[in-house]
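haha ok so turns out i had the wrong file open the whole time. this is the CORRECT one, sorry everyone. sequence first:
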Amino acid sequence: NATGTYVGAYTNTEYNTPQPSQKLTISDMWGSELNGFTVICFTRPFNTGLFPIFANTSSGVIGAVGVNDVLSYHGSFRTDINNRIVVDFLNPNGSSISAMLYSQGYIFSQVLIPELLKVHWKPVSETNNILYLAVEGTTTGYVAFGWSPSGLMAPADSVIGWITSDGESFVGAFYHTSTTTPNPSTVLTINDTSVIEVNGVTIVYFSRPLNSGAFPIVSGYNGVIGAVGSDDKLRYHDSFRTEPSTKISIDFISGFSTSCVIMRETLRIAHGLLMFLSWAILIPFAVLFARFGRHLPESVWFRVHRITQAISFLIAVAALAIAITMVDGNHFRTAWHGQLGIAIMLLCFIQLLSGVFRPHKDISEKPTQNRIAFEYFHWWTGRVLVMLGVVNCFGGLLEIGGVWMTGGLVVLCAVVSVYLLSFVVLQVKAIKMGDPDVVPFLLFSYEPRYKVV
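then structure:
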């Protein structure tokens, strides 16, 4: 801070403020700040502290950052508690494979999935702007590495490679638009491709121009993702992928990397549940109630319809705000679920305005042409919105993937089935009763039966 630099050794015995360490000795401490980045440096003897550093042994490490220079709780800005990170400090090149890659010129590396996936790269030449990479995966199946600004599987560029059981190798460039099988990329150029397998480890080599792909490599940090497959079939990797709650970013020019824990998974769940509540539960209910509830006294249907739709709109707006916070702008330019969602919300806002500023009609008056036009627009826009909203709920579940997709599809199909069955039952009942406000489905009855205020 403004008064100087402080670096201290501490011991953590509980989940609260650590105490100054009596056993860990550090020296040569210094620190600096540059462009929002803080760097601290120090040395320590191997045999000091509660947890000495031993030869031929990987040490578990943790880290955190604070929002200010007061030693207070760091919140979620810490290493992911679900992923244990280990480092062999006495062998800076890590495993023998990492040492081999280091000797080949791949001097930079970053662990993507502890004990499963690691990316290595050579220093970038200032003359040709080509990046050479080697992706090391502990598997005899496929190895995947990609660039994703949001840290999510889609949208993203990726390179995937494997060796078949017949010994043939494959390396391809792909583009991800969803969490399903990616499509071959038409914009990402890769060269110098090869694959080798060594003692159950698959290494995929390739190079790429910095300015290639849907997401060119920029100066500074680039979001990356990775996964490994259990065999050489391009199919779902299950949980063997970079943690969705942790965004890993790499500066391929300088060799620095960073990772931060974010609330993405919680935000995705909140977004999905709120949109489900709005578009699969409340809005269809409000539409059905407006259609089949007009026999109730004192325009009960109208008040229920208006209040329910207003609440639904506010819930959808909250879910949209979560989505905007959760992903970057590329999502809305490349993922159809996001694009359709924006279109639905804009149309929903127009629908809301049309209801607020509608031409009123009195019980003693014949509907005007403006009123008739409003009813056609409002009724059919509402029907289209309900259908698009449900379709986009399905799209959101397909984008999430995993158990949430499976369980969500079952629940969503059940809800849609209940509403469709309810519509059929109520419509048949209305036809038998000869209700003039309900029987016309494609046309409208303009007989004044109520007064709208």
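The CA atoms of residues 155 and 331 lie 6 Å apart.
again sry for the mixup
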